[in-house]
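Dock norvaline; give full complex structure.
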Amino acid sequence: MLSFQIMTIRHYLQFNDLSCEDYAHLFGRMQRIKDKFKRYVAYQPLVDRTLAMVFEKASTRTRVSFEAGMYQMGGSVINLTTGDSQLGRAEPIEDTARVISRMVDLVMIRTFEQTRIETFAANSRVPVINGLTNEYHPCQILADIFTYIEQRGSIEGATVAWIGDSNNVCNTWLQAAETLNFTVHVSTPPGYEVEPERAGLVDAQHYREFANPMAACRGADLVTTDVWTSMGFEAENESRQKDFAAWRVSDRLMAAAKPTALFMHCLPAHRGEEVDASVIDGPQSVVWDEAENRLHAQKALMEFLVLGRIHD
Ligand code: CP
Ligand code: NVA
């Protein structure tokens, strides 16, 4: 009789799917994998493994970092979009998950409602990674915190100022603050405040809300923001342009933070809207390292979800 070991499947659907201890392991792996990449040392633990990517929204960084990362680790990639798959012709997400997950080793999805990726994961035989939903963007904050650690050391006890929309990226910072024990100062326009339940928060201990963006930046170790109108919310663009006009990260706002404060933005950015060019293109900005680190962070994540904890 054939016997085989069933590995427990772990999905990465939101930041708090992993523990503080898991993250300690992952940040170490990111550094190791990045060092190899920089020294042109091949590292191919995922030979013969396949990643399927499903994009129901546009992407540059997520697509390139997952695709390049999987090839660099020896595996291969299949890219699907709503338009070129049966998802666009109303095949149920449950059926899509059952079929795709019988053929590949790992799935990354970028979609709309979080419930959609949860339904996919509930019907999947292989790990599922959230490549952005309306509610969360965990891979982004994985790379952002790795970038912070590279620049400044542990993020525990630090203060992050979030200026702008309480969107998927903001929600993920808030979950990360609970998991890794730091504080987020959030400043949103009225009507766009944090919704703790939607953000999936346990309590309100790790963030403070500020009506004034400058007050939120005061004493911060990191200032970060994102577009005023996220994908899927385009119908609100006109009203958001007015509502968010005072929530632009400027040199004045950066001056309220610590002199050593970093600036991050997940990108794509709109200079002159949520951030001034002098900030994003200025000396405190680490946005290009942040974008590059998507590659290294997600390689460590894929290794972890497919193979478990590797120490080499
Ligand atoms: N930051 C980010 O996820 O970028 P893309 O939308 O280009 O993937
Ligand atoms: N909040 C943005 C992030 C893009 C990477 C969006 O969802 O469109």
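Observed: The CA atoms of residues 74 and 266 lie 27 Å apart.
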